Amino acid sequence: MRISVFGSTGSIGESTFDLLQRSDHQVVALTGGRNVRRLAEQAIALKAELAVTAYDDCLPALREALAGTGIETAAGTQALIEAAERPADWVMSAIVGAAGLAPGFRALKQGATLALANKESLVTAGPLLLAEAERHGARILPVDSEHSAVFQALVGEDISAVERIIITASGGAFRDWPMEKLATATVAQASSHPNWNMGQRITIDSASMFNKALEIIETREFFRVAPEKIEVLVHPESMVHALVGFRDGALMAHMGAPDMRHAIGYALNWPERAELPVERLDLAKLGALTFRAPDAARYPALRLAYEVMEIGGTAGAAFNAAKEIALDGFIDGRIGFLDMATVVEEVLDEMSARQGLCNSALSLDTIAYTDAEARALASHYLTKVTN
Ligand SMILES: NC(=O)C1=CN([C@@H]2O[C@H](COP(=O)(O)OP(=O)(O)OC[C@H]3O[C@@H](n4cnc5c(N)ncnc54)[C@H](OP(=O)(O)O)[C@@H]3O)[C@@H](O)[C@H]2O)C=CC1
Ligand SMILES: CC(=O)[C@@H](O)[C@H](O)COP(=O)(O)O
Ligand SMILES: [Mn+2]
């Protein structure tokens, strides 16, 4: 297959790189951000046609690193779009944040299969993305571990027989912390995941459960199930990734070691299963797995996810944008860990009262407008929290 990877230098990108190195697929485009040294190494190792950095000021370094290799170089947002237009059969969408939407959207337009790690695409533009795929006969395959698990549990099943979808949550870095201590959580503490090795932003989102909040909305958008059918279950071991409950009472669980090469490899080889370099679980050695209901007071992000689905329209875009700004604020030391949820809730409240979020028809323009408004408002609330 001809393959492109967007966000190649990140955590999902590196896992994809690992699988591609073991394959004979033809690599078209690899994209990254500031880590141009790694982007160049990957492009050389995979004999890519093109390497793109998202940032203009990183282009000279990328050019220098790839001088004499014959690999094309480019930079900037438009170059990312153009890279997504290059004919490819399979495209990995693994840029972090709302920035991942546009290239993925464009890849669908040329009919490529989109392996979707970038959950923000579905949260902000789910119905548009699915319609675009349908319009161009393209396919979206989930890569997020829970959604890959649900997808696998649904093979050969009728979605109308699904009673509930349960996605698991590790509980993140602070799952065993007393509530009173959460306000003092530092960025370093929040950036360490108990089970998964991931980028910093999703790792912190895991600690605050904003990651799970995004995933609830992602579940609703991808599988088109009603919000009340979606549940979250805290499962500290991260071995069961999701469960699907059917109307006859059967519960199909998907298990595997916490290694994203499984979900990526599944999407890469779909509809077949190929051998993958992931650990085989020894259940006797594991002995026991534990599950508990999430504590609503500890994780306001979960409640906000259901509010967003209730509002509909561009509320997902507002929610995600506000979350991205609040996360920036926490990482930069401007607000505390618990303030992130406060900022996001304030933005949602204000925007749904002021703009009637559900009334604006979903389009790339209304999403971009809502995203910008939510970012501006969240930045304003950041300063309010700080003062
Ligand atoms: N990591 C995981 O296991 C999982 C991740 N996901 C989702 O996958 C996506 C990627 O996550 P993860 O790999 O952890 O993230 P990382 O932060 O590790 O990697 C992000 C990638 O995107 C690039 N990038 C960052 N900002 C921009 C931008 N503005 N424009 C273009 N490229 C940019 C980075 O470049 P550089 O580093 O060179 O600056 C890097 O290549 C997220 O949406 C996340 O929610 C979903 C499930 C699991
Ligand atoms: C690997 C993956 O899919 C992540 O989204 C993971 O789910 C994060 O772990 P949490 O369950 O802690 O959010
Ligand atoms: Mn996940």
Strands, helices and their partners?
Elements: E1 2-6, H1 11-21, E2 26-32, H2 36-45, E3 50-53, H3 59-65, E4 72-75, H4 77-85, E5 90-93, H5 101-109, E6 113-116, H6 119-135, E7 140-142, H7 145-153, E8 162-169, H8 187-190, H9 200-208, H10 210-223, E9 230-234, E10 240-246, E11 251-255, H11 261-269, H12 283-286, H13 300-311, H14 315-331, H15 339-355, H16 364-386
Query: At the fourth CATH level, what is the homologous superfamily of the largest domain?
Result: NAD(P)-binding Rossmann-like Domain
* The first-level CATH class name of the largest domain: Alpha Beta
Number of strands: 11
**Main beta sheet:** 7 strands, parallel
**Percentage of residues assigned to helices:** 40-55%
Distance between the termini: 54 Å
Question: What is the ordering of alpha helices and beta strands?
Answer: EHEHEHEHEHEHEHEHHHEEEHHHHHH
What structural class is derived from the secondary structure elements? alpha/beta
Q: Which fold name is given in CATH as the topology of the largest domain?
A: Rossmann fold
Strand arrangement, major sheet:
4-3-2-1-5-6-7
Mean pLDDT: 97
The count of domains is 3
Radius of gyration: 20 Å
- Count of helical regions: 16
Q: Which architecture name of the largest domain does CATH use?
A: 3-Layer(aba) Sandwich
- Estimate the strand proportion: 5-15%
Bound molecules: NADPH dihydro-nicotinamide-adenine-dinucleotide phosphate, 1-deoxy-D-xylulose-5-phosphate, manganese (II) ion
What spatial form do the alpha-carbon principal axes imply?
globular
Low-confidence blocks of residues: none
GO molecular function: 1-deoxy-D-xylulose-5-phosphate reductoisomerase activity
Cofactor: Mg(2+); Mn(2+)
Organism: Thioclava litoralis
Keywords: Isoprene biosynthesis, Magnesium, Manganese, Metal-binding, NADP, Oxidoreductase
